[in-house]
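Notes from the 1:1 (GR / supervisor)

We went over the backlog. Supervisor wanted to see one worked example end to end before approving the batch request, so GR pasted a single chain during the call. The sequence is below; no edits were made to it. Supervisor asked that the structure be written out right there so they could see what the output format looks like.
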Amino acid sequence: MLKTTENAKETAAVVLPAVLCTLLWGSAFPCIKIGYLAFRVQGAFSQILFAGLRFALAGLLVLLFQLVREKKLPVPPRQSCLSVFGLGLVMTTAQYLLFYLGLANTTGVRGSIIQGTGTFLTVILAHFFLRGEDRMTRRRILGCLVGFVGVVLVNLDGAAGGFRLDGEGLLFLATAMFSVGSLLSKGITRTVDPFCATGWQLFLGGAVLVVIGLFGGGRLAPTGAQSWGIFLYLAALSSIAFTIWTVLLQKHPAGQVAVYNFLTPVFGVLLSALFLRESLSGWKTAAALVLVCAGIILVNRSAPAAEPQLPQRNHP
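Structure output shown during the call:
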């Protein structure tokens, strides 16, 4: 009885903060499109500038949090500086360059579902490139297949429109950058504090986006105080969600926390429909959401001890 009570308390300690994280991440989809309107963002380079300023500020917020907590500015070891900068180029510059451009040419509903596939790509890449870790199982393969079926379904021609390379195609590439960045960060954070690595990669990666946007002639024209409010929210949500998520991973088993990732596309779809009045595309969107969520649950679910694992490639 005592053990059951302790398990219930542990579960309760994870549920609310984990749901808050996924709610924040899901809300980014409609808020980005609202931000485009609030800042009169027109053209690719203005979108890049908007993204760069947002993530540079998000990185500063993470570093400020660590500065207050540790009473000193977090700086990566000298031998890791290039690795952290490289992580910023992949995880922030490349990922969000593709993400922002792609999201401008699709709906928040479809964008949130496509972004949910990042979990599957990470699982697949980890099997081949992380020796002795994250072995692929039949259950995980099934989860990946189920999730991708959902993504394909929502992109079929119909009420939601067809597949566009400059929309959904760019978002798929953005998820690939996230997956590659996840593997890189796993190695980097063995020698660099996660807050330090994330803060600097967000700031440096965002700064590169700002430079690209300015050199390309990008311009922002805020329409008032409300526009700055949405901008600050977009920057803060990344910092807050990352901080909470990291604390959860420090205090609880990773699998217990990771399963809540399936709520992000759900919140993204619902909030896009609420704030942008985007169509849920009837049964296709509903079915796609069910499949994506089922796939994420299968991937994150603990496999039985007897379940066979697929051979893993070894690297010298």
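Supervisor's comment: The chain has twelve helices and no strands.
Batch request approved.
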